[in-house]
């Protein structure tokens, strides 16, 4: 009898286990199926992505056919393509845009560059160049851009006819580049103001901007010195234009024009060199 009871108990236990398994499947089955489906979908996406990338990197459809440039003035298309080692037939997907930009920035005239892939087979390059505004002696002759940055050495092929900024040497620039740049910027601001007056009154071409501490002296192409001193450059340059007109009307030429009287800012002192006729070699005998 004990044997029969054990047998019945085992049957009951088996039935209970089967029922428990069925209950677990009913309660957790949908969740398990979702996990399995998600895993399968992820695997398919990864596989599809790998295959798509392989196709994109090998497809002739994405082989570089043309490169367009904008903003070029001094830098040339050939030079930039050579620097970047950019040639036809390269795959657009394989191009490292950041690396291309960094290599093109090595060109001395290039200030900023933006490379954009134009699918399926073109690349555009937008270049911003340094704008040369003056020259500076920093051991060697350098070109200053519009921000007072000495961005390249002067070379024979540059063909630049720009005013020279003096009073900032190489040692000073190396010791404190930011302060030197600020002095260059101050010199450029005065040069721009002089050019603005030049457009209106056609004075002599500016040859040099001499920075002596905080004082500024302009040197014209004729050698005439205009000592502006410190501050109020635009007002002083307007006064300079009036002085030059008055001298011209009297047939006189000035060697030095002083506009740097700190005690009496409105005063002007002039050192006369010679009459204009004598300067031109046409004086009467």
TrEMBL record:
POTRA domain residues: 62-130
Supply the Gene3D superfamilies for this chain.
Cell division protein FtsQ/DivIB, membrane protein fhac
Question: Keywords on this record?
Answer: Cell cycle, Cell division, Cell inner membrane, Cell membrane, Membrane, Transmembrane, Transmembrane helix
Alphabetical list of PANTHER family matching this protein: CELL DIVISION PROTEIN FTSQ
Keyword Mitochondrion part of the UniProt annotation: no
What the entry lists under InterPro entries is as follows: Cell_div_FtsQ/DivIB_C, FtsQ, FtsQ_C_sf, POTRA, POTRA_FtsQ_type
**Pfam families attached to this UniProt entry:** FtsQ_DivIB_C (PF03799), POTRA_1 (PF08478)
The subcellular localization recorded is: Cell membrane; Membrane
Disordered: annotated segments: 1-23
Provide the function of this protein.
Essential cell division protein.
Q: How does it sit in the membrane?
A: Single-pass type II membrane protein
Composition bias of kind Basic and acidic residues appears in 11-20
List compositional bias (Basic residues) regions by residue number: 1-10
Give the source species: Myxococcus landrumensis
Q: Which family does it belong to?
A: Belongs to the FtsQ/DivIB family. FtsQ subfamily.
By what name is this protein known?
A: Cell division protein FtsQ
